[in-house]
Design goal:
It contains 13 helices and 16 strands. With 444 residues, it is of the alpha+beta class. Strands 4-8-9-7-6-5 form a 6-stranded mixed sheet, with helices on both faces. Helix 7 runs antiparallel to helix 9, helix 9 packs across helix 13 and helix 10 packs across helix 13.
Length: 444
Amino acid sequence: MSCFSCFKPDKKMLSKRMDARPVKVVKKVLTQHGSSHKNSESDKLQSVPSNHKQSSEAEDNTEYPKGNHVTAKTGKAFTFRELATATKNFRSDCLLGEGGFGMVYKGQLENGQLVAVKQLDLNGFQGNQEFLVEVMMLSLLHHPNLVRLVGFCADGNQRLLVYEYMALGSLADHLLDNTPEQVPLSWHVRMKIAHGTAKGLEYLHEKANPPVIYRDLKSANILLDEEYNPKLSDFGLAKLGPVEGKAYITTPVMGTYGYCAPEYIKTGQLTTKTDVYSFGVFLLELITGRRAIDTCKPACEQILVNWAKPMLKDRRRYHELVDPLLRGDYPERDLNQVVGVAAMCLQEEASLRPYMSDAVVALGFLAEVPAGYEGKISIAPQNKQAEDPSVTGRSKQDQRKIDRQRAVAEAIEWGAMRQKQRAQIQEKKAQSQGIIGPIDTNRL
C-alpha cells in the first residue's frame, strides 16, 4: 500500500511440536503455558517439498552478529530437586496441561513466587534444540508483552524451563475453549489483547537487534495476566531475522497449520511479514471466536481465512464475522477498523502487509477508548483545568495521540477498500474486453 504514508515499501525491516516426521493431524491445542485441550486447530505444518535449497546455516542462525546492543539477562539455574519440590514432585494436581514441549506444572518457589514449570519430553525429537533456543531468546528479549523466563534446569538429561505464572492461562481458554458457564470476552478486552500482542510483535520485529521472527503466533501461545494483559510465550520456533541487507532467511517450514503465510509454505522464505500474516489470522480469531482450523465444522468453514474472505471483501457483511457470543455488543466503527487491519495483514503479497508498528498505532485507539466511553473521556471540568494548566497540556497530548491513532486506523481501512475497488475495476475492464481469466480465490 504505497498510496498512503502508513505503509512505506522502503521501510527496513497443537499441541505437538513439529519435528521431522510427516504432516499429521493432532487433536489438541496448546493452552495455559503450553497446556492442551482437544481440538483440531493444532494441525502442525512440517517441511514441505520445494525447489529452494535449505541451508544449515539459515536454520542454525542462532548467534547474534557482532556489534548488536542486546544485553543478556539469563534466568536462575535451578536444580532438579528445587523444581521437584516446587511442583510437589510433579504431582498430577499441579499439572496445568501438556504441550508440544512436554508437561507443564504450576509450582511455588522457596521465596513464595508462583511459576509455571515446563518439563522437556525426553522422547521429543526437537525438545533439546527448542530448550536452547527458548533460553537464549528469553534471556535476550525483555518486554511487558513477552512472558518472562524465571530460570531453567539442565541437570543431567533433565531439561526444564521456569516462567512467570500467568493467572488467566492462555487466550484459547477464554476465546476458543470457553464453557457455557464462562462469561465471553468483551469487545474492549479483545481489542486490548490485540493491541498488546501487536506491541509484543513490534518489539521483536522493529526494536530487537537483530529482529526476531516469532513463527508460532496463535491464541494458544498468548498468555493472560489477571488484568487480561497479553504476553507472547513459547519461543521454541523463533528465528533471528535477516541481517546485513538480506531480504529473508530460508528455513524448513514449521509452524501451526492455518496461521502460516502462503509464501512461507511455498518457498520456506521467512521474513517478519510472515508473522504479520499470522497476526491477521489471530485478529480473525478475536473477531469471530472461531479457530484457525476446525475440522468439526462443515468443509467450507474449516479454514477460518477461506471462510472469512467473502466477508472481508464486502463491508456490508462485516457484521457476519462477529462472534455471536458478543450479542451485538460492539461499536460498528471499531469493527470496520479492526477488520480493515486484519484484511491488510492477510494480503497474499507480503509486501502489501503493514508493519507491526502501523498495526500498533491503528489498534491503540480501539484499545484505549472502550465503546461507550468516548463521551466520558472527552468531558472534563473546565474550572479544574483552568486551575491546573498541566492537566490541559496532558489532555491535549492525549487527544493528539488518539487523533493520530484514529487517522492511521482510518487510513488502513481506506487502503483496504481502495485495493478492493481497484480489483473490481480491473475485473470489469477485463470482462469488457472479452477476457475471462481464472478467479483467484486466494486474493483478498
